[in-house]
Amino acid sequence: MALRPAPLWLPVMVAVSLLRGSCLGASSHSLKYFYTAVSEPSQGQPHFVTVGYVDDQIFSYYDSNSRREKPRVSWMEKLGKEDPQYWDRNTQRSHGDEEIFRENLETLRSRYNQSEGLHTWQKMYGCELRTDRSKGGFWQYGYEGRTFLTFDKETLTWVAPEPQAQITQRKWDTFPAMNQGYKAYLEEICIEWLEKYLSYGNETLLRTEPPVVTVSSRTEVEDGMETHVCRVHGFYPREIDASWMRDGEVWLQDTFHGFLAPNTDGTYHYWISIRVDPKERGRYRCRVEHDGLQDPLDLELEEPTDSKSNLSLIIIGCVVAALVVVGVIAGIAGFLVFFKKHQDGYKEASTSDKGSSSSDQGSNQTV
After folding, report:
1. What does pTM read for this prediction?
2. Residue 175 and residue 165: Cα distance in Å, rounded?
3. Cβ-based neighbour number of residue 202 at 10 Å
4. For the segment 317-347, what is each residue's pLDDT rounded down to a tens digit?
5. Rounded-to-integer distance, Cα 66 and Cα 91, Å
6. Which helix (H) or strand (E) holds 295?
7. Which of 130-139, 246-255, 352-361 has the lowest average pLDDT?
8. How far apart are CA 108 and CA 93, in angstroms?
9. How far, in whole angstroms, is CA 206 from its chain's centroid?
């Protein structure tokens, strides 16, 4: 049965998911690459886009219109001076990726027995370095906005969720040396480049800015219950813990979480709300923990004053956050780059931050 192309709203939902996912909790750093190829893009949009992220910051970009890998942050200029061939080398690899992505789109369209039209082939991979120095890594492919293949670096095999993907799974798993290359990249080379990028962008990526926390409230006309909103604004890094406490314990009932989103200055904002009985207002606190705070911050709930103005603030906050997410998507030519492709030459991997496998098996990247 043929798959339908992913709906156009999918990039927005994925963006919200990425902003909310892996944003709360212990501080960590990540290097991620996202690639997307579209068979019939809208007029003016590129057929192929790649984006590189350090943490949540875009540092490199390539598309099939410009056909040139370019820096997106000022701190990458230092790398360009130290390694003058860096951008040329990555541009050539992106050219190769673009051709392979075109071929794979055509192969998969035929495999799924689909007609011509809008189809997407995507890839995402990256690594994470956590505060305790433990490491994480992932490598995935997607077709039509759905998972196609996922690499299991513990078993050195590919996981395929459907028959069409199992054809590629069997093909790629016949090259164990290549799969070992994926694992080595995720656990070693990717981490080395992440640390290098953090050193280049340390003034931006390793800074700490404490949150500004405020609590506002309003009384519900219908039932007399109170809604309290705890806003956390202007903090960096993005990892933060914010929760409602009742009698000193975390309280999840009647709690609603907003999503964590970036501000225009590179900091973040987040909010949580709760409904309480006015008689029990004194039992609740908003607790915030962040690297920029020496100790957890606890704020008491106050009696509602102006419900209309508070409600407006809630609405404005949600709209601004949504616009920021959409703006990020528009900034990368209309698609969220959800998956990324690996390159040639595992033997050359130490000269590149991008994933590589054994050069004599590069043709295995076709599906």
Report:
1. 0.73
2. 16
3. 11
4. 444 444 444 444 443 333 343 333 333 333 3
5. 10
6. none
7. 352-361
8. 22
9. 18
